[in-house]
Design a protein that fits this description.
The protein is α+β, with helices and mostly antiparallel strands. Helices cover 19% and strands 33% of the residues. It has a 6-stranded antiparallel β-barrel with strand order 1-2-3-6-5-4. A 6-stranded antiparallel beta barrel has the order 7-8-9-12-11-10. A hairpin with a 5-residue loop joins strand 4 (118-120) and strand 5 (126-135).
Length: 363
Amino acid sequence: MTAHAPRRPPLLAVVALSTCVGLIGGALAAWAIYARFGPVERVITQPITVSGGSSGSGPTVIQLAQQVGASVVEISTRPVTAQTLIAGDTGIVDGFVASGDGLIVTSIHAIRGATALRVTTEDGHAFAATIVRADPAHGIAILRAVGAQNLTALAFAGTTATVGDLAIAVAHAPPGALTLSTGTVSSTGRTLSLPDGEPQLSNVLSVDATADPRKDGAPLVSGAGVVIGVVVDAGGAVPGLAALSGRDAAALVQLASGGATSGSATLGAAALILDRATGAAAMLPQGGLILSVDAGGPASVAGLVQGDVVTAVNGVAVDAGHPFDAVALGLAVDQQVTLTVVRGGVTKTIALTVGSTSPSAQS
């Protein structure tokens, strides 16, 4: 009689049994951990960076804001005391340094009604200030911090902001904390009517960020840290945060630096930008729909009237990137331009001589 060796369980069955035991053991261990410590979360932290070069890397938003913050100033529009600080009614607005010798950019709205102007820098230096230039059509004012030297100035962007660009508003909210509003540019070339009856503003951009009245006059910078706008308190007139054109501000700073006595270039009219879709809905072409014409201004002298649509200036199509605005179009005072205008469905050409805004404004 031949003896038979004991039968071994199939290898597959052994593997399956081991797997089941492992799964059950793992589940029991996981349940024990959950019962003792609760759910386990995996947290991954990643600093937000902005594009800073060909490598695509750059500083974090807070690092960029801290750099810009060194050039943000507080402007007191009336005497400030301990009691006004306690009451929270300080009369302090923002501005930023545009030149080392004390040119300060802010909004006209921010300093409207000022009884005494004083500029204080981040490092605690204070200077009496005067208004040296203002552009009511674009809402921008330039102050001079008297006696200031070697201030840290911000640079202006070389190109106009476009929809989708990163935008960071950097401000000092009394009693001095750095505050940020970060978003993307949501529209450009807007016409803005402020709720308190100030003149209609041209070439305004908006940002999908929370608007804060305390940021009035603060710089709006791009991801490269250069100025693309000047924050203005729009009082809810536009969704999000509103800003005056950085390009218009740069042009006004250049005039103030050169000591020119004439104002900035103007066409003497306010226009609403119509895109193709909106124009088609109203049976109008794409272009600038004239909302108002300044009495005696360049547009009035040229014969433009409310309801005209300017489709081109010197052959350049009028659109959100090229609004009907002399500074935005790079025009100079006394320059002769040709407008392509549609009135009542008829296209005509109109000659216009670019005018000049008032070189100063009352505070």
